[in-house]
Amino acid sequence: xxxxxxxLQFNARVxxxxxxxxxxxxxxxxxxxxxxxxxxxxxxQAFPAKMPYPDKYDMLMDIATEEFSHLEIVGATIQMLLxxxxxxxxxxxxxxxxxxxxxxxEAKEEFIHKAMVNPQFFGLNGGGPALTDxxxxxxxxxxxxxxxxxxxxxxxxxxxxxxxxxxxxxxxQFTDDPYxxxxxxxxxxxxxAHFQMFEAALxxxxxxxxxxxxxxxxxYSNTYFNMSSGADFRGPWNEGTSPGLGETWQYIDxxxxxxxxxxxxxxxxxxxxxxxxDQVEKMNKDLGKMRSSQIRDAIPKGEVxxxxxxxxxxxxxx
Amino acid sequence: xxxxxxxLQFNARVxxxxxxxxxxxxxxxxxxxxxxxxxxxxxxQAFPAKMPYPDKYDMLMDIATEEFSHLEIVGATIQMLLxxxxxxxxxxxxxxxxxxxxxxxEAKEEFIHKAMVNPQFFGLNGGGPALTDxxxxxxxxxxxxxxxxxxxxxxxxxxxxxxxxxxxxxxxQFTDDPYxxxxxxxxxxxxxAHFQMFEAALxxxxxxxxxxxxxxxxxYSNTYFNMSSGADFRGPWNEGTSPGLGETWQYIDxxxxxxxxxxxxxxxxxxxxxxxxDQVEKMNKDLGKMRSSQIRDAIPKGEVxxxxxxxxxxxxxx
Amino acid sequence: xxxxxxxLQFNARVxxxxxxxxxxxxxxxxxxxxxxxxxxxxxxQAFPAKMPYPDKYDMLMDIATEEFSHLEIVGATIQMLLxxxxxxxxxxxxxxxxxxxxxxxEAKEEFIHKAMVNPQFFGLNGGGPALTDxxxxxxxxxxxxxxxxxxxxxxxxxxxxxxxxxxxxxxxQFTDDPYxxxxxxxxxxxxxAHFQMFEAALxxxxxxxxxxxxxxxxxYSNTYFNMSSGADFRGPWNEGTSPGLGETWQYIDxxxxxxxxxxxxxxxxxxxxxxxxDQVEKMNKDLGKMRSSQIRDAIPKGEVxxxxxxxxxxxxxx
Amino acid sequence: xxxxxxxLQFNARVxxxxxxxxxxxxxxxxxxxxxxxxxxxxxxQAFPAKMPYPDKYDMLMDIATEEFSHLEIVGATIQMLLxxxxxxxxxxxxxxxxxxxxxxxEAKEEFIHKAMVNPQFFGLNGGGPALTDxxxxxxxxxxxxxxxxxxxxxxxxxxxxxxxxxxxxxxxQFTDDPYxxxxxxxxxxxxxAHFQMFEAALxxxxxxxxxxxxxxxxxYSNTYFNMSSGADFRGPWNEGTSPGLGETWQYIDxxxxxxxxxxxxxxxxxxxxxxxxDQVEKMNKDLGKMRSSQIRDAIPKGEVxxxxxxxxxxxxxx
Amino acid sequence: xxxxxxxLQFNARVxxxxxxxxxxxxxxxxxxxxxxxxxxxxxxQAFPAKMPYPDKYDMLMDIATEEFSHLEIVGATIQMLLxxxxxxxxxxxxxxxxxxxxxxxEAKEEFIHKAMVNPQFFGLNGGGPALTDxxxxxxxxxxxxxxxxxxxxxxxxxxxxxxxxxxxxxxxQFTDDPYxxxxxxxxxxxxxAHFQMFEAALxxxxxxxxxxxxxxxxxYSNTYFNMSSGADFRGPWNEGTSPGLGETWQYIDxxxxxxxxxxxxxxxxxxxxxxxxDQVEKMNKDLGKMRSSQIRDAIPKGEVxxxxxxxxxxxxxx
Amino acid sequence: xxxxxxxLQFNARVxxxxxxxxxxxxxxxxxxxxxxxxxxxxxxQAFPAKMPYPDKYDMLMDIATEEFSHLEIVGATIQMLLxxxxxxxxxxxxxxxxxxxxxxxEAKEEFIHKAMVNPQFFGLNGGGPALTDxxxxxxxxxxxxxxxxxxxxxxxxxxxxxxxxxxxxxxxQFTDDPYxxxxxxxxxxxxxAHFQMFEAALxxxxxxxxxxxxxxxxxYSNTYFNMSSGADFRGPWNEGTSPGLGETWQYIDxxxxxxxxxxxxxxxxxxxxxxxxDQVEKMNKDLGKMRSSQIRDAIPKGEVxxxxxxxxxxxxxx
Lengths: 318, 318, 318, 318, 318, 318
What we know:
6 copies of one chain form a homohexamer. Helices cover 51% and strands 5% of the residues of chain A. The first copy, chain A, is mostly helical. Chains in contact: A-B, A-C, A-E, A-F, B-C, B-D, B-F, C-D, C-E, D-E, D-F, E-F. At the A-F interface, α3, α8, α9, β3 and β4 of A face α4, α9, α10, β3 and β4 of F.
């Protein structure tokens, strides 16, 4: 169950209206790497985790809920940056006395000009935040990734936090409002904190590479295909030892020739790896057994109930 | 700020797994009229309402938060209906002893068959709920409407609750699980309750019709164009008195002739209405002044701060 | 069958080109609450209504067809506001004599500048209207709602008309062209008229609340959960009598405690309502029987034919 | 202005309900190459054509309006194929006497099964057609192409008709209902007719190749790059004379070498073409002048009015 | 298998940064008619063509690969036009010495202004090209058409090349950079070349009209419905002989009357055509047999292998 | 420049047609984590990397090109799994002799049934692969992330490879065809290899955490908000030392109270971290200077040329 407290998690303020920056800031409200994406991604991942891995479920829900709170901070900041647009849209007296005093024609044109640059706030939405990115694309769940495996999902989350971090970093270049900067720095820093939480959680799952259950085929896990010719470079990604499996990279300098000569890789032999097909098959079987039984054992047979209301023994810190 | 309590708002249970119904139920998780749409719609509408209309803001946030809690109930039910799919996907031992005992070939085919019918759970998502509708369309913010005017937004919400209600009604036809039915009835009933909350709130705003500020042109507000010929019907929507403005409906039986003869409605004269252009203009000006100043007055000049942390005088019911 | 008359339903004119406003006006051409959405929504809803409810079918098709006619008015206005952009794009003589006379460099830059602000007209579409909103989002049927029940669909339509009305109201702020204002006022007023038609039609269906067939569970239909703490407000939406069912609102001040103590609402008892579970069940059965038989009886068994061409007894007003 | 006549353009009938085929038929209702796409594509293209090219405008509006009429035929057929689903969804008496007589359990399961296969009709839409394709994707204006140039738009339309034709052809394989086949054959044949109309119209515009104004650079218009090696073929698309410009195809057998040696095509010389850069520049200037002035001359300076209501001299065939 | 050579197919250069034009140029990178759409469309069409029609497969893959190479040219040009935006975004020293020297405040504001006009480059993407069109819409496969029949696909491709051509033509109006113009002219000319390749290939398939297999019904293939009344025009599209089938156009001046009187076209008789239903049925059967057996015969029974690595007899031009 | 070799990188084969599995396999052709997404993501990221970081550019283009080659393998496998669907769709002889021999009615129904389960192959696409996922959603560039910073992009890529890997793992459960399994294992293993390449490349960039330039605020980088109460867990993600910055996690057990008491975190003091604001500011300035000048220095002033055709000194391995 969710609960809302009217006060923001961070004391967000603005110095003065700035609809232009409000428009850019939408990137973190309804954008591909914004707070809504983060909140919903962790929330959705939490469901299959709950029964087998209640500790990871706890963490995912803690962070998801914080991201919803960040979404609110971003929305509040946008609203404050919009100033009185919502009210101005209601002012339908074309020849109002105020407008006449304040050289109405120019005020009107300025208003029209602002609308051209930020149509989302003036046209459809009427002076409030919209669930779009800075270019008006509506938020889509295509941004969310949840694949039912924590060795994958936690990595997706580390990447998601990385992207959210850099977008805050870029946004900080486009405002001079010290209050807004303060808020953005808080939000940016939280992405750094969350990244480390996911990293630490991933580390408690062993083995966590390769992701999931199945081991890689020893013939293909350490080959590097030089598919883009000219200005070739060598580095730890194609020479020396591979970081995850500790195999020796095999550099295929002329991949077309190699594919032709190996009958489409059918004749390619494993080199530079101690792993064998037998080991792989055993590992697949053992790890599959272990993980699938962990999950199966955690799910009750027959009737299932999500919550146990009598379980909280008086301990209520809310 | 949002806060999460691990117990669900409603004690959701399932009798046994049913991935097929889980698939249909996605309609209320990531569908066009589902809980996420409701939650985010009210949440987004709340921002421009907060300062000028704190009572409506309170109501919008109360209901938005409840809808997030319903989203969680739906997700939990889907997860329980999926049973052990997540675990089965990890079981990679093809010739496992268990499978051999339990006529492996048939079990395998049954598993494959289930995947064809519910690809979302078996392929990409790995046995958890996805933010899609029952046909796999990712949720999009194009479902959300927020237009910066409560006389519009509250009506949008009444319609949204109507649609959510009927979808629960339809879904109830497709499960025989008494626990699931119990949960769906709770959720469906809450849509009925919310509908009435929005209706009551709309009624406290006067005038609330026409929506927004501008009055309709008396020439065009009570004409009915008979644009579809054959099997014509008359009813209170085209004869007698119009429900909102109390004008007399003017039925244009042959609209093409009428448009031609009135020079594209330029020569059309108002009939059946006591309203005049002067009254309309005065009303536009007065109402615009009233509403725009309500909003302008509620927004501080200069620095703005969203929350006042010292305002809660000890009163903390959470 | 549709038929087109080249003259517009309203004599749309513009004083001079204004590509900027054309860009905003796209909101009503291909936008979420624009004319295309309205036209297609009522058109799609009409199909299941035709046989059981021919009077509502007549109304839906009348209004749908008028909305197509409005779509044409909006498109024509956009086209006129674009002036000669289409022609300018064909003028490929870089060093044309005219350009040389008319300080070519500046003209060129002005042209380029206009294209930056309105890329839709200059790049892809080549100087005509596009089926997008003012920010370039292509129109999507995700905007359209049709749920197969008139107690729902008519409410969706009332909300849709509300949104279309307010968007015209906002747009009127951004043009000073008296001709364009005249057209927008006609279109805005028609939304007010349509709203009342749908309202009157809904009123002829009794009962129409709750929507569809199923009655709400008396335990949950009048509870208000105070899910957002701090700055709480009371109003007719959470105290007194609920507007639809006439029950007494039950305000749950501390929902977390209440959920915990009621075992996830399982122990929650109905209060403040005269309705009982037995009445609900009887009503569900009776209303379901009535409505489903209305529909079943209206649909012929075996072969079905949509139109009866001999039915029009000479009476042809087209 | 659009007008609707309740009778369909074609006397569509069905022999008996078939929700499965209804689901496939959605492809032509809300699919990428369906009737809505065709109708809106020609409708949108018509706006920039109206003033300079009223004859093409007439044709585009004739065909657009016919496609709207076809959309209605497809929708009506889908509705008839759905039979009484809409009514069944209202029948909420779980233990109805009828169900008990008619072995209720099996009927229920059959109903549930149908819903799994066609969720669009049972879940969200409630037994009517939806603006989606056969897989539930909502219709999007991304399907529509309108580029402001008839030498392009008419070719887009020929391709669109080709796709619509083949989809009807495929659909005909999936029904045995003679009435439905009759309707599909009518609709399919109309695509063939429309294709020829667009072809004939394109032929009246001279020159119409290359499309638009600018001529191709003689260095690059007749080269064929053999970018996919192995199993190479020669045919009239890379040897002999090119069909549009009548140049001699130049086959570049080893494009990588050619690009390297020609300094990225900078050193590539025109061969096999009589066209010169001078001719190209002259043609660009002349054709640009002609086409841009045609358009400019057709658009009134200053005030513009779309329709002239007094122009129809009594001649009214509607 | 694809292979990449770091050098571009065309020696693309820019004279100086121009982020505004970069923004428009996105139309050809991730836009509806851009290079990605072309590349993927031909690539996808190639799969079903490979076995039965290896010559068309060769052509489709040649052109698809060239389009990928063009996509790279467009991306490289955008990147060069963006100049050092990517680097500027990293420069986080607010009070840097350089900024102070170079009147920092103004530089900052200029930078902010540029970001407002091109949010895609400054916000999310960080100074590189994005797979969107010029308005920020993400590329979607809804742009791609592939229908499994070369008489359709090749026509789709001719239309696609037409659209790509005109978009390049429009874009050429918005840059004065001679290097960029040179590149755009190369790319535009290639669309002209590809159009002719597809046209020539279509011509080698006989018959290719109507598309696919099924012939049109002689009753409906030559009728023209005058669905849009007023300002009617006659031309080769509705009088004389139809270009594809050589039938005589039948002009139905009053389509409503005609439909009524013909009982929804049931009583409409074929006129102006020598084709008969018997001929049509025979042609359907014969052509269907021929084409389906061509395909069936080309696909091996049982095991299938895509490539034959020993088939290249030493002949390797790569 | 891209180049294509007709032979696949891997010798893909199938034992027999299996349209059902073809349908699931679309997930890796046009799905969110499929080969097209991978190919285009790395390709797009490569543009801003080219000048400042040619070694990373080389790696990104090598892997992007390999992913295009994998896309081709997946497409080829789908095509082979579809068998002769394309040909069957051409067979329009309803009463063919063959059908009559082979109990035509049943064959017909089987064919219709297959189409219902896989509408994508039978309806629109005509028996070839489509750029959609397994549920028919068209591929969208919303899947692609490219943020102009390698410390972010490489992490995005590691996550992308993780997701692709698990989807192949799931898919392997749904086929028994040994040839198909062989191909899927090759493709799955390549994701494992690519993951390690990106990991190794990330490691060569120092510092790479936090991502980008800006350091986190020491007040907020090590706090853990316990936002989801009940069943709380402690682990290395909220106690002990944070993995990236080596700070001591600060666990805020009652976040609502903490936020209230700290005036919305304004009064929150840094604890458990040696980092200071001064250090942060210095680091921001220094790192920003370093990275921005790396990029600025790599980009030529004035004219820019993407490729240098004379640079390859005869060394041509293609």
